[in-house]
Structures are given as structure tokens and as C-alpha cells.
Amino acid sequence: MNSSQQCIALYQKKVLHLGAIVAKTQFGGYSLSLDDVVFALVKQGTLYLRGSEAMSHYLVNHPLTPFIFCKRGSAISLNYFKVDEMLWQDEVSLLKLSREAWRDAQNCRSYKQAHRRLKDLPNLGIRFETLLREVGIHTEEQLRQTGVEQSWTLMHERNKHLGLPTLFYLQGAVMGLHHAVLPLSIREELTAWHKEFTSRCTNKTTHNLRLLRAAI
Known about the structure:
The chain is an alpha+beta fold. About 55% of the residues lie in helices and about 20% in strands. It has a six-stranded antiparallel sheet with strand order 1-2-3-4-6-5.
């Protein structure tokens, strides 16, 4: 067991009442999460707690070192603070700051999910966000309410080059999945719908041509 793993084991014992904390490798160390919400980091045997309102109050009288992450030669200060020896020994404050760090992270995630842009959904990006906005779909909720098939139809009316893959992208976005891992049953259902749509369009075009020729 290395120093980081020892640190994690000790921390889990100290904040046992917080819940089942899960450790995963991240930033060359570990991220600690509760209910899939990351609120702490461990690097080289040192624990860092996410910043929160409670942490801001604590820092007034007990300054803590922020977590520094090096990326492409640049040092980036993250909103995480080193748990020093004094805080390690103050288990009441440690538990309180840990709980508030988790709550703050949870609230932040909920806010982002409620306000995330279409481009942030799986498979979409800025290009598809623009295409959707052109047909009056500006939010994730509007996309869900409109439905995948109808959204694609509206987009297709303005962009005839859009095909079956775009249906997969939209469905994956709604389900929170990469299009490559959509269930086979859903892919088959969308493929059948697209085939029927294409057939209707072909028949309509042929009918219109016949009417035009008859008129001439």
C-alpha cells in the first residue's frame, strides 16, 4: 500500500459517518467521491478538500495550501485545499468540511446539469447545437420534448445532407450515451424509421414530378 492509499484509508476511517467514499485514479493521484460526486483529491499521500462556503470561513483563521495542477508547463491552482496536520487532528472540523465540500460539489453538478448547453451533450458539439437552434431547439428539455425523430425532421428540412448517423447522435444525446454504444434494438428502430421516412420522401418527390409533367 503506497502513501496515497494509506492516506485514503485513514481518511475513510476519520469520516466514516459521511458514507461510502470511492477512490479513483486522477491527476496522477486519486479523486474521492460520494454518490459519484467528487469532493476531494489525494496526491502523493496528501489529502485536498474541495472549496466551499464552510472552507472559506475556515481559511480565514487557518490558511491552507491550494492544490496546484501542472498542465502543459503551466501551474493551475484548483479549488481544493491541503488538509494539514492540525485539520487531520480536528476530526469534527474535518467531517464538517468534508460534508460541505461534497454538498457544494453536488449542488454545482446539479446546476450545470440544469443549465448545460446542447453542445455539452454527448455526440453534439457546437455544430449540432447551431443546427438545432436554427429550428427553434435551444435547450436539452426542448430536445427531449420535441423528440428525436421530429428534431431530426426539422433539421433535415433545412439540411438535406443529414442522414441516419445524425439520428444516432441525437438519440445518444438524449440518453446520455456515445452513439457507438446505443442499444442494438434502438439502432434498429431508428434505422427502420429513417428508411420509412426516406421512402415517403421519394414517393412524394415522384408524385410531384408526375403532376409537374402532366401540367406541362
